């Protein structure tokens, strides 16, 4: 009798393992992430091998199956009908793609652009449905923010604004923090932080009206100190702290505050060769003789190659980003943080849990690539 029971339990155990693997394969076929579930299943099966009791084995694998099923269920999204969203920075990149994506999903989209006559804005107008409106909206211009607010308020009525996506942002230039001009620090803070705060404050009454959500596109550079990104990283860190604070404060009204920290995607935030040359000239013309001697013109000019390398290593497929944004906007239970893209979660995890000396070494090797060295360092190495 005991042998029959053991045989049945053994068969049930094997069947449950097959079901676990089958559910994982089904998620892969659907194009959904299984990274954490694979780790969970492998750990669970290994643990069950160490357990001698067949009953405990079956119980453990049953729990695994239940977890995979629960996590893997297709979530029912909120209806898009009568939901309006304002997205900043829609001239190109993430904002442009997101505006078209949400328009095709049936939302009422207000797409803010820096220049409504830019090629990206004109393309958006041409390709969009009547549900998408392109608005002139420089988030560092208070009068344009006020005008946009008045127009949107007149269009949405009592329904309120369901979501504000703070997407507009600038990179400035990638170079050592000591030689980055102060005006570039100020520009990063004005656009990436102050502008986002102002537009959030202006539109919050409409968002509170709908118990909607604020979604800010940040960067892993706002959490992890990346060499070359002093100005950009500082502005994004300010954004993360601000959003974390208001997330707690606005929860009393049922307003969700969400942060997206994408990995490396190829967008126009890297700028053009012409913009790089202008930034390089600003740096060269603004340095004191002492600092210029320490760094040298050759090293400063090598910064452009960093931008080329980063752009070429970035992904042009924004599908993961758009899916996470859709979930953040329409899920009944959105996450507080999203990390779309390759390595978006790896570097923050490394920085949080590794000794500082180790994470500094790894990050320096990743982001301070190439043979170029400041002139003074090069002399010392000879």
From TrEMBL:
Signal peptide: none annotated. SUPFAM superfamilies: NAD(P)-binding Rossmann-fold domains. InterPro entries: NAD(P)-bd_dom_sf, Sc_DH/Rdtase_CS, SDR_fam. GO terms for biological process: steroid metabolic process. It comes from the Eukaryota. The keyword Oxidoreductase applies. The chain crosses the membrane at residues 12-29, 36-56. One of its GO terms (molecular function) is oxidoreductase activity. Keywords: Membrane, Oxidoreductase, Transmembrane, Transmembrane helix. It holds the Pfam family adh_short. Belongs to the short-chain dehydrogenases/reductases (SDR) family. This is Estradiol 17-beta-dehydrogenase 2.
């Amino acid at each position: 009798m005991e042998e029959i029971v053991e045989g049945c339990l053994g068969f049930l155990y094997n069947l449950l393992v097959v079901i676990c693997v089958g559910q994982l394969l089904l998620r892969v076929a659907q194009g959904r992430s299984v990274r954490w579930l694979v780790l969970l299943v492998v750990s669970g099966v290994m643990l069950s091998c160490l357990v001698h009791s067949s009953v405990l084995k079956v119980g453990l694998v049953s729990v695994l199956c239940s977890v995979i099923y629960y996590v893997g269920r297709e979530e029912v999204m909120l209806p898009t009908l009568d939901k309006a969203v304002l997205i900043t920075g829609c001239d190109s990149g993430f904002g442009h793609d997101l505006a078209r994506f949400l328009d095709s999903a049936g939302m009422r989209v207000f797409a803010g652009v820096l220049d409504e006559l830019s090629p990206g804005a004109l393309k958006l107008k041409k390709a969009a449905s009547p549900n998408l409106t392109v608005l002139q909206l420089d988030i560092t211009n208070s009068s344009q923010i006020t005008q946009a607010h008045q127009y949107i308020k007149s269009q949405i009525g009592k329904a309120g604004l369901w979501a504000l996506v703070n997407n507009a942002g600038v990179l400035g230039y990638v170079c050592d923090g000591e030689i980055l001009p102060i005006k570039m620090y100020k520009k990063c803070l004005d656009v990436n932080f102050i502008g986002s705060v102002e537009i959030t404050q202006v539109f919050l009454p409409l968002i509170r009206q709908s118990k909607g959500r604020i979604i800010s596109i940040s960067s892993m550079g706002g959490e992890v100190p990346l060499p070359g990104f002093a100005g950009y990283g500082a502005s994004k860190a300010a954004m993360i702290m601000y959003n974390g604070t208001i997330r707690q404060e606005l929860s009393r009204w049922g307003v969700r505050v969400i942060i997206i920290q994408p990995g490396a995607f190829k967008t126009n935030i890297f700028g053009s060769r012409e913009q790089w040359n202008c930034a390089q000239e600003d740096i060269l013309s603004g340095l004191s003789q002492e600092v210029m001697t320490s760094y040298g013109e050759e090293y400063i000019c090598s910064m452009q190659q960093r931008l080329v390398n980063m752009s070429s290593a970035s992904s042009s497929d924004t599908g993961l980003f758009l899916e996470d944004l859709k979930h953040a906007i329409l899920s009944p239970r959105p996450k507080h943080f999203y990390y779309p893209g390759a390595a978006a979660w790896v570097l923050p995890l490394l920085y949080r849990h590794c000794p500082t000396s180790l994470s500094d070494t790894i990050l320096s090797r990743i982001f301070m690539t190439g043979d170029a060295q400041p002139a003074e360092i090069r002399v010392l190495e000879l």
